[in-house]
Design a protein that fits this description.
Layout (H helix, E strand, L loop, with lengths): L2 H10 L2 H14 L1 H11 L3 H16 L11 H14 L3 H20 L6 H20 L3 H17 L5 H14 L1
């Protein structure tokens, strides 16, 4: 169904039928419920804190299980927050938090896999682009520079790529 067809269909409904359909969507689809819950009561700070807790558990589990270090957990939250329309500065905060917690984790380990470093570089690139696109560079420049410094201090094989991305960010500003 196209948007045009949907508009025609919705225009043919009376108010009661439209209300019934929205209630039906709300009860049947988790995404619709989350959208309306967020739209009418956007507890962004609570969402962000829960997100940070879950990301930190990936690297520092509360139990004796092994750390999973999955970048996808943070990426899923970021995509979800973008769909909900969470404030861009909060999304940027999550993006950088994910990288910072990964760096903290790697600082405590002796042998970090190259794939891990590549994955974090990809997250850093996405964060730099998002921050730049949303005009948040000044707000997050200190944290970004610390990330680059830490990748260098930990002697990551791709530390020059972090530095290059930082240089590109400065050229854009």
């Amino acid at each position: 169904m196209s948007k045009r067809d949907l508009k025609l269909y919705v225009n043919d409904l009376n108010k009661k039928q439209l209300q019934d359909q929205i209630i039906e969507l709300y009860t049947r689809f988790k995404e619709v419920k989350e959208y309306y819950d967020f739209a009418f009561n956007p507890k962004e700070n609570k969402l962000i804190e829960e997100c940070k807790f879950k990301i930190s558990k990936e690297y520092f589990p509360r139990t004796k299980r092994k750390a999973k270090c999955r970048r996808s957990v943070a990426q899923n939250f970021i995509r979800h927050f973008k769909r909900l329309g969470v404030d861009p500065s909060l999304i940027a905060d999550i993006m950088l938090f994910n990288i910072e917690i990964a760096l903290t984790y790697s600082s405590e380990k002796e042998n970090i896999q190259d794939a891990f470093c590549k994955s974090i570089l990809k997250s850093f690139d996405e964060a730099i682009n998002y921050i730049s696109e949303n005009g948040l560079s000044k707000e997050y420049s200190t944290r970004i520079e610390k990330i680059v410094d830490e990748s260098s201090n930990q002697n990551w094989f791709n530390r020059e790529a972090f530095e290059r991305l930082l240089g590109l960010k400065r050229d854009i500003q």
